[in-house]
Amino acid sequence: xxVQDDSREQELCNLFNLVWDPDHARGGEDxxxxxxVNGKKVRVAVxxxxxxxxxxxxxxxxxxxxxxxxxxxxxxxxxYSAEASRGKPRLVSTLCLTPDEMxxxxxxxxxxxxxxxxxxxxxxxxxxxxxxxxICGEKKVxxxxxxxxxxxxxxxxxxxxxxxxxxxxxxxxxMLEILRQRAQYLMDRGATLNxxxxxxxxxxxxxxxxxTHEHASRIREKFAAYFKDAxx
Length: 232
Description:
alpha+beta, five-stranded mixed β-sheet, 9 helices, 2 domains
């Protein structure tokens, strides 16, 4: 994330009284807050976005993990003026959307990439012992080095050892499982969508929900209503 975008994100977190995660770029949550609803303490994950344009950029290499993650988050969007004020874009208004409100767009992205992921999953499952022999050679027991050569850095050493079903390695059946997992990983990478934008046409329907004051209380009121309606 660019430093400028990072600064805007922190500003939004301060306005909405969110806990900001500085390491979120590594795959964690942008931010979160806690509140009590119906006597139950709830931690709410928040996706924080900002824009000086008409659409919202999301993430690189969007796959099914993103879809699952997005469906459990409240979204905070900050609209900034392209004209700088004191050297930086000025916040004009904000928007807070629930998972249900974001669902039509999320489902559209899922529909676009979902078929490719299904193809990859089916293809990986169809790999056989014959395929294993072609790729890794035919052995009664495969070594740790054989597995590392196949699965690369996807596992730590402890995970490689835990996957062994022989004292000193892997049976052909276990190695075939690892091969299928590797194939699934490679196919998933090829099925991702780079930075799908949330278009102006989608966000326009929420034009009457723009927030310009009392940000912290508004997001909590909205989540409380969503939590009650969804009966989580």
